[in-house]
Amino acid sequence: MEAAPVIHEFEAVIVGAGGAGLYAALELARDGVQTAVLTKLYPTRSHTGAAQGGICAALGNQEEDHWEWHMFDTVKGGDYLVDQDAAEILAREAIETVIELEHLGLPFNRTADGRIDQRRFGGHTRNFGEAPVRRACYAADRTGHMILQTLYQQCIKHDVRFFDEYHVVDLLVEDGVSRGVVAYRLADSSLHVFRSKAVLLATGGFGRMFRITSNAHTLTGDGVALAYRRGIPLQDMEFYQFHPTGLAGLGVLLSEAARGEGGILLNGKGERFMERYAPTLMDLAPRDVVSRAIYQEIRAGRGVDGKDYVYLDVHHLGRAVIDEKLPDITDFARIYQGVEPYTQPVGIQPTAHYAMGGIPTDVHSRVVVDERNTVLPGLYAAGECACVSVHGANRLGTNSLLDILVFGRRAGLDMARFAREADIPDLPSDPVGPVATELEALRSRREGESPAKIRRELADVMMDDVSVFRTADTLRHAQGVVDGLRERYRWVRVRDGGAHFNQDLLEAREVGYQLDVAQVTVAAALARQESRGAHYREDFPERDDASWLKHSLACRVDGAPELRYKPVTITRFTPKPRTY
Amino acid sequence: MHVSLRIQRFDPDRDTASHWVEYGLDVDPMARVLDLLHQVKWEQDSSLAFRRSCGHGICGSDAMMINGRNRLACKIRVDQLGRKISVAPLPGLPVVKDLVVDMDGFFAKYRSVHPFLVNDDPPPAQERRQSQAQRAVFDDTTKCILCGACTSSCPSFWARPGYVGPAAIVNAHRFIFDSRDQGGEERLQILADRDGVWRCRTIFNCVDACPRGINITRAILEVSAAIVEKSA
Ligand SMILES: Cc1cc2nc3c(=O)[nH]c(=O)nc-3n(C[C@H](O)[C@H](O)[C@H](O)COP(=O)(O)OP(=O)(O)OC[C@H]3O[C@@H](n4cnc5c(N)ncnc54)[C@H](O)[C@@H]3O)c2cc1C
Ligand code: FES
Fold first, then answer.
1. What is the pTM of this model?
2. Cα(A38)–Cα(A165) distance, rounded to whole angstroms?
3. Ligand 1 within 6 A of A203 CB?
4. Chosen from B39, B103, B142 to mutate, greatest number of chain A CBs within 10 A
5. Are B59 and A45 in contact (CB under 8 A)?
6. Is the ipTM, as predicted for this complex, more than 0.90?
7. Does 1.10.1060.10 match the CATH number of domain B104-231?
8. Catalytic (active-site) positions of A
9. Which residue does chain B place closest to A220, by CA atoms?
10. Min distance A139 CA to chain B CA atoms (Å)
11. What average pLDDT does the segment A127-146 reach?
12. Which domains are seen in chain A, by residue range?
């Protein structure tokens, strides 16, 4: 690493090649802006490809639907912590976004008359909550795969410049202006500086800090932690979604589409327990509601054989529907559990799935750094790493694929404008110095603990103490453990001293990001003394709008998170009790 | 149960040739090979290099040769393999380190067949219509995750590395048979080349290797038939 860094110059740099990064890249390429996409994985390996069930838009192809209904469901689903100006944009632009995806080549399933087919999904309703509505557009149960492929294909068509397996390790922010990023190239360990007018963070989520998760091994919160280290606050980090139906023991996701198509949940006694928790929407209630119901059944001893899981049953849908609409997820049950969904129920348990919180942005995906929403010039964030906020305290299924595309595209459009107006910023005097020192310290240490051990202990404590149910006691306990792990992390040791494909070094660095993100999550959860959406405090079981209808902002002060708050934007829908 | 896991290792900083290293592990029969690799990496030797991300067979990162066949490490269980398991990088591709191969050539071939929708008509205000039957024609080839298992299992590709290979043909098929696409002519021309579809000897290794169950040989035959039809 003694060699001088390679310096690149672009008008725009995008970190991450999932749906959010690729849509922004496509928009910039169509506008002729010189753009580089940096990604630690080959683009088609991004976790957007794992999304199964669908992307929603009020097309009304199957039955009457309106974007206002969609907006309402999003706001209510998010337990009124949603910024309604952003939710309105999301619901309105959903329609043109899905149509454009089709024009770009996405092979949606079709209706009998050749239009985009739509199916039901949790929390999406007709006429402000009356009954489920068919709003999710889909391509079998590989919608995310088709979105990722389609956008990558279009980026190839438009000659987007990719830097594959370039791991971004630092953001260059100086005097309140974004100046570029530093990346570590896996192939040969060289350090690269990308000087750029506009930078987009599109690095995805961070579910890997929990033991049971639907997220990829590589989802370690890199962009979120790097922003936080550079003085950007993190918003609403206490809200982390647990999806009700992960394969028991593993966490691999079985999409809500299984229930959208008519699958049902059964407890160990064979009862359809959702009848008791959400009489109107039942199995299609929002995820926070269903996950809590499952935990309550398990606690009451009604899990399967008294264990910590219940059943998802789709056998009554018949082979034809299963094979045509749910082929991949039923295969997961066969491969990973040895169960045949044609005839048998599948064991499931809630799995850590989606980060509602993240890097705060405005509706043009520009990063904002304080309670007054002051923009940090040149820095953007979109996708799961960002918080606009359209999901508030709980995201509805199919709203994330939509969010990454609507706000990924908006990022691209605004970056193009910004690149035309701004001059290329100067680099800091020693752009790689700080991160090169950190990496070298990791690599040259001869004695120390393995980062993998710290990662495992972190995932255990986050799962046991900071998941579906939380109390001050569990959170304080988690806080102590995380602090201890952070201390131990300062002395970890990397074994691989080589210069080629040194994953060992980068995985150790990723554990550092996970520890930062976990620390903030626990602090924000401890501070919020109410229950809202996915954040459920047994010691404060009610929503408390008078004190807590506000977004949290965790700022790094002397190395520890300090919590501040900013108001929620409310336009059309005043908060009401949330029942389904 | 106890298994012996042999991994073909190569460190470009130290080794001139690859060599086998054996690890003894106690594992659950339902564990996947990926779990075994993690066990080695996290508990014994963290310098072991292999790509992986999603962990459940959809990102295409961890195709490798397992007990002599190309498969995804995250999609094959110990009880399907037995007590002796050997893992090597995908054949026919340059090894970067341990189980990591250089995929740049593979992706260059993918790019060469114009893997994107071509349609220069101004789009309608709504979606383009496509019947369920029209969509069904190319459904199978939309499943490809670009893992490289098929191409690197193909003897024709080993014999002639210039051969565009099954994965690229599958992705060309996905567009050639899409009723909305207008770029078929050009793609067929590219695939009619010396290194195109005619290199396929219908050996079916690719079909065996595909973790997505795509009927690759059928796709290649359909593309060949389209070329013949066009030139007739
Ligand atoms: C199993 C599963 C099923 C889902 N199903 C649905 C669904 O049906 N509908 C729905 O709406 N949502 C669904 N979601 C949620 C949705 O898929 C994700 O929230 C969304 O795809 C995230 O997209 P993204 O572009 O933000 O990030 P990702 O697709 O995760 O991409 C992140 C990118 O960042 C790059 N990156 C990360 N760190 C670095 C770094 N340090 N340097 C360089 N590059 C970096 C990675 O290489 C990658 O390219 C699902 C999620 C999961 C896990
Ligand atoms: S890790 Fe994604 S396919 Fe195996």
1. 0.97
2. 8
3. yes
4. B142
5. yes
6. yes
7. yes
8. 287
9. B53
10. 10
11. 96
12. 242-350 (3.90.700.10), 433-567 (1.20.58.100)
